[in-house]
Amino acid sequence: MISTIFDGVSMSMIVPFSDKILSNGKIIVPGKLPAFAEQFIAKLNSMSQLSLLYYMAGFLVVMFLLKGLFTYLQGMLMSDVGQRVMRDMRIILYKKYQALDLEYFTRKRSGELISRITNDVGNVENAVSYGFTDLVYQTLQIVLFSAIVLLIYWRLAIVAILMVPFISIPIVLVGKKLRKISTSTQEKVADINSLLIETISGVRIVRAFGAENHEVDKYSRQNQDFYKLNMKSIRRTLALGPATEFIGVLGGVAILLYIGRQVIDGVLSFGVFGLFLGSVMMMIRPFKKLSAVNAIMQKAFAASTRIYDVLKIEPKIKSEPDAWEIKEIRDQVELRGVWFRYEEAEVLKDISVRCRKGEVVALVGASGAGKSTLVDLIPRFYDPQKGGVYIDGRDIRTLNVNSLRGLIGMVTQETILFNDSVKDNISYGKPGAGYDEIVDAAKKAFAHEFILNLPQGYDTYIGDRGVKLSGGERQRLAIARAILKNPPILILDEATSQLDSQAERLVQGALDTLMAGRTVFVIAHRLSTVKNATKIVVLQEGRIVEEGRHEELLERGGVYKRLYDLQFQA
């Protein structure tokens, strides 16, 4: 606001400079002015040319110094606001991602999620830092110069103001189109990000199949589509400036013809004429700027819609306000009459399994039988559509989710490690664990020896998803992570699948020690690893078809016997 006032004052300096200092004439304004303005003009008219020149020179220096200061301050403050908005929106979105159900992530591409937290938030920040600043500043400029022309010649000012709707029409029409284009553009960014993530994370497969050219072609097509959308937006945005400017100039020329005659007739002075015409022209510039602001705002509106599409989602898996904080398991984990499906596909059908404290329940069956889905229900990654999961007779939906998962350790078939040090990956489930504890867990997982051979030992960074390690080494780190957490409930989903025979025997021994006294669910395709399980549950097409100990199931000669024979008599 202060910067705008200084703009008006600097423009008004035309009047005394041209009318009084250069021509030693009088400042003449048609019509009635407010008393303070008339007194000020009378004072200027009474001053000598030289005195007024000195006053103006000093005033200009001070004014532009202050104007520069306030322009700098508003730029800094609004940039700070924009950066804070971007910072806060990113952390809000990231927190939301952490709270959303796993089901959401199975339906969305990684690139789309990344695009919302980077590109979309960036568009909103641009609107706040620059778009909103210009929106306020340029609007104030229009108000200020409208006030000036109203004071000088209100009849002509009304004519100038009536031009506003004609200037606004192309801005509104193009703005609607820009919003649609911006939505498509941001979706295309998500497509490009997804493709990048897929090809970078799957670079070995791309190389192995010689598919580099195929992937380049795919990326080129996506990139070309993105280019076309951007050019659509750019063409419309660039056309707005000349269009609004031309409409404004038409009005300005009409005013120039009329008011020029008023100067010739001596109704107003040349300086006042210059101020009036300059103010009219200064009103055109903000409209031109506002057309660019509109383009920025439309992108931000499209981006904010995509952001709020995420923020308004309510996770299904969450702790109720009165949720029970569970500290330990005393008796058993039980699945009672569980039915579960992903969208339309029924995966589990009437599953009932009981695992008492200290027991080891092994889940076996062909791929797609529902084993992994079953164990995913225990830490409440999903809720069943029918039936429920109970710990010590209490439905886990009544438990605090964090306290429930604090009781559970998992080692999965897909080993997930982070681009961090070895020790930080091992201590992931127990932040703040001491160095000795980490080393002890690594020794039990038979990982200590290979860790010492790494360049910085336990401080070695292992790359994205542990890419610098072999499959077996990654698996042993994951096992060490579960050992360190020391949970009462263990879920082992093909925990030894990436190990060679020697390492498997060593780690299996460590797991046997770890499993003692704990409630354990084991998924294994290698049936040799589940011989000693307390109970073996055989799944087929989402149903339990057999249940018992290893020897009992072999004697029955059913599904388990056939699976066993396929592995050991092939």
From TrEMBL:
Instruction: Name the Pfam families on file.
Output: ABC_membrane (PF00664), ABC_tran (PF00005)
What topology does it adopt in the membrane?
Multi-pass membrane protein
Mainly resides where? Answer: membrane
Alphabetical UniProt keywords: ATP-binding, Membrane, Nucleotide-binding, Transmembrane, Transmembrane helix, Transport
Q: Which GO terms describe its molecular function?
A: ABC-type oligopeptide transporter activity; ATP binding; ATP hydrolysis activity
Identify the CDD domains for this entry.
ABC_6TM_MsbA_like (cd18552)
* InterPro entries, A to Z: AAA+_ATPase, ABC1_TM_dom, ABC1_TM_sf, ABC_transporter-like_ATP-bd, ABC_transporter-like_CS, P-loop_NTPase, Type_1_exporter
Ranges of residues in domain ABC transmembrane type-1: 33-299
> Which residues belong to any copy of the ABC transporter domain?
333-566
Q: Where in the cell is it found?
A: Cell membrane
Q: What is this protein called?
A: Lipid A export ATP-binding/permease protein MsbA
Give the species: Velamenicoccus archaeovorus
